[in-house]
UniProtKB/TrEMBL annotation:
Name of protein: Nuclear transport factor 2 family protein
Organism annotation: Amycolatopsis melonis
Domain DUF4440 residues, every copy: 7-113
Pfam families: DUF4440
Coiled coil start-end: none
Recorded superkingdom: Bacteria
TM annotation in the entry: none
UniProt xrefs under InterPro entries: DUF4440, NTF2-like_dom_sf
Length: 126
């Protein structure tokens, strides 16, 4: 299986685990030094990222990961796509459509997420 296929498969598993709030699966997908940069610039480490579901603060009803382009750099891969979610954080809607960059690192025969960066999707550059 190619790097692109592996990364896309991992993305499907990740999105489904987010929808289920499955911290066991998410923990297995995230490297020890994982970091998430949220769409408002906040940073979560691996433990904080997993705790979003353990605490019940975050409920993700739907998450899609589409228009994904993967670049393979050997021990690292970069996947850029569109992350669209319907979710609530502490009861407040946090729905959105974001440009998402996933940084992945080789882990044995597969890949793990080292980072995710979300940015609001604005207009076309001028």
């Amino acid at each position: 299986m190619s790097t692109e296929e592996q990364v896309r498969d991992l993305g499907r598993i990740w999105a489904a685990a987010e929808e289920r709030g499955d911290t066991g699966v998410l923990a297995g997908l995230a490297a020890d030094g994982f970091r998430l940069v949220g769409p408002l610039g906040f940073v979560l480490d691996r433990g904080q990222w997993l705790a979003r579901y353990d605490s019940g603060d975050l409920v993700t009803e739907k998450l899609s990961w589409t228009d994904v382009a993967v670049r393979d750099f050997g021990a690292t891969a970069i996947a850029i796509g569109v992350h669209e979610q319907i979710a609530r954080h502490r009861g407040n809607p946090v729905n959105g459509r974001f440009r998402a960059t996933h940084v992945l690192v080789r882990a044995g025969d597969g890949w793990q997420l080292a980072g995710i960066h979300l940015s609001p999707i604005g207009g076309e550059p001028r």
